[in-house]
Amino acid sequence: MKNLLVQKYGGTSVGSIDKIKKIAQRIVNIKRSGKHIIVIVSAMGDTTDTLVDLAHQIHSNPPSREMDVLLATGEQISISLLAMAIELLGEKVISLTGPQVGLKTNSTHKRARITDLDDKRVINELKENKIVIVAGFQGIDANDDITTLGRGGSDTSAVAIAAGLNADKCEIYTDVDGVYTADPRIVKDAKKLDRISYDEVLEMASLGAGVLHPRSVELAEKFGIPLVVRSSFHNEDTGTIITTDERMERTEVKGIALDNNIGKISIMEVPDKPGIAYRLFSMLANRNIHLDMIVQNTNRAAVNDISFTVDDDVLQEALEVSQEFAFEVGAQKVEFDKGVAKLSIIGTGIVANPEISSQFFETLYNLGVNIHTISTSETKISVLVDKNLAKNAMISVHKAFGLDQ
Amino acid sequence: MKNLLVQKYGGTSVGSIDKIKKIAQRIVNIKRSGKHIIVIVSAMGDTTDTLVDLAHQIHSNPPSREMDVLLATGEQISISLLAMAIELLGEKVISLTGPQVGLKTNSTHKRARITDLDDKRVINELKENKIVIVAGFQGIDANDDITTLGRGGSDTSAVAIAAGLNADKCEIYTDVDGVYTADPRIVKDAKKLDRISYDEVLEMASLGAGVLHPRSVELAEKFGIPLVVRSSFHNEDTGTIITTDERMERTEVKGIALDNNIGKISIMEVPDKPGIAYRLFSMLANRNIHLDMIVQNTNRAAVNDISFTVDDDVLQEALEVSQEFAFEVGAQKVEFDKGVAKLSIIGTGIVANPEISSQFFETLYNLGVNIHTISTSETKISVLVDKNLAKNAMISVHKAFGLDQ
Fold first, then answer.
1. CA-based Rg of chain B, rounded to a whole angstrom?
2. A204 CA: distance to closest CA in chain B (Å)
3. Comparing C-alpha atoms, which of A152, A174, A288 is closest to residue A220?
4. What is the pLDDT of residue A152?
5. Which of A290, B13, B80, B193 has its CA 20 to 30 A from that of B293?
6. pTM of whole model > 0.90?
7. Which residues of chain B are within 8 Å of residue A100 when distances are taken between CB atoms?
8. Whole-number mean pLDDT of chain A?
9. Domains, chain A
10. pLDDT exceeds cutoff 80 at A207
11. So what's the ipTM on this one?
């Protein structure tokens, strides 16, 4: 649809009646500037936590389908209140739940994937000149059951709707005013980026710089929808635009990311038989445990050490699987280390630029930071370092690449 | 469907996590006794009030459609929590919102009327041996919009579903243990009735004995569904069954009702022209004001006094209309009186039994209670008396008809 803007406001942006009224005014101003507008909202503030707590007072492991019925009420409350606030300002408006907006998903409750958008209703409402307010994070499966999309769900709803209706862009309003060269809480000199590519922001997200969930960025890239990250509290700031990288061949470091929430597991003296690593990784995959940096060292003939990192919150489970594996194949020992952190530099094409990688390693060397493991991709170089040295290293690397300028 | 029981639990019955767990146990016990069971629930305790308050913090007169989107979340929370509690006890269960259960309504938001029940889904779920938990008070209109049913909505949902599926009976669980001969808070000797007819309970409801909303009783009568009113806090008590009156010709007083929440309006010296009363009543009807006891006295030639009673909460509005009418037709004066109450005796066929009416009037006469107005129907006799004498009169009349035995 021509001249269509999609906006998404997160839970802190609709966290109180006053904030809802402010956002209503902002939306009405945009509408009056002559645009069609669809607004996706999350649940107010800590509503979702309150609902989860209610469920856990009843059941330690509530059935997923019923959890989705419960959680979906959070966004349903926000959309109705925001619609009321907009109506009060004199604009035509309608709220739509995930099922009403036609966001079809598979039936994997609590982390459903979007399969389709039936856009008939939303197009009709827009044609009647209404502002359309949509409950994020929720959809409907083939049985007419309510589903929720899991982590990053509201951002993903927004991008899916922007893609389905071919919007000009999708603006994600949050409590930060854009994408930064590094986490400003750690690196005081971090600078907001005006522009970054999908691939770069994807790497930043997956490397622990938690601006946007990778799902929403992947979807935006797939459908070529420009994404804008900006603050709902500062009207003047235009945020960061995420789009395709149009530069030719130029490579530079765009940002530095640090992930402290990881643990390293090492399985020592694994007999070197064909298919043995595959066996471990499939056992972990079956438990839905995502591995990150993987290293396999051959110590001596026919015996390997295998190390990998996982997120903190699955460390316990990954250890259990590793013990089981070690027992099964006759490995000697399983160790874990929570004292490591992953430091990454991000930028399209940087791995192909030897100046950048050598500058990165040299900076760490000069600081006396030991590198445990290295992992690279087209758009990032990550190293595993001691956690207690990681923040200082991040600040120095940020400076070394001139990102504080 | 054979062997099907429909139950409805009100807001106080699901007012806390503990109460939800208790009700879950009760439902599971019934299921294990070999019945199909559908349970309709209201929103927990004061959830609805909290939601209404949120809306009013934004908008003094929130749009009805959005109000329904907001209010429907209350029941959606209860059904998911109750389903979780039942699942924990090991029974198969599914929660369904009003839209999911196929309760079709017209589009009069905030007080929608049920037009149809699409029972395919609920039958399928019952056939899979699941306990079905349904959000009361809500449905869906032809545009796929969420509607709510207004006063008595959850009871009406329950009866509509019981009727649509031809259930054996519909049990309404509430905080009282049945229908009483009179309000036990006023008449200490009031007795619980084991059995009462639809017509009698309808009169009691409309005369201020607020056990069940007339809508649900009318629907139950229309489809011949036996209704049971009972307490969710006492397992042993079987409550009151409401069904057709199968006795032949026997008439007796079943209950006494008192309505203190009324006001009387008198329009004095209305010129006696044809159609003039009709004009007043249609003006009131246009504002959706329901009149109750109407008296027209001809004082002298060509001049009338017209009096009627209305509910307290529309007294102000009814007065405005009456003033307007008085001005228009040249009546001399409009008065109102909040010092009256309506006392009624209820029982099928009592109006045709002169012994009953004379006993009623004699009791009031002996107490020195002056009767302002009398109104009768097939199943009730109502009188308008001074409010300050009404409670004592109620107790005496209750005794006079032997209802304390």
1. 23
2. 37
3. A152
4. 83
5. B193
6. no
7. 144-145
8. 90
9. 4-175 (3.40.1160.10)
10. no
11. 0.80
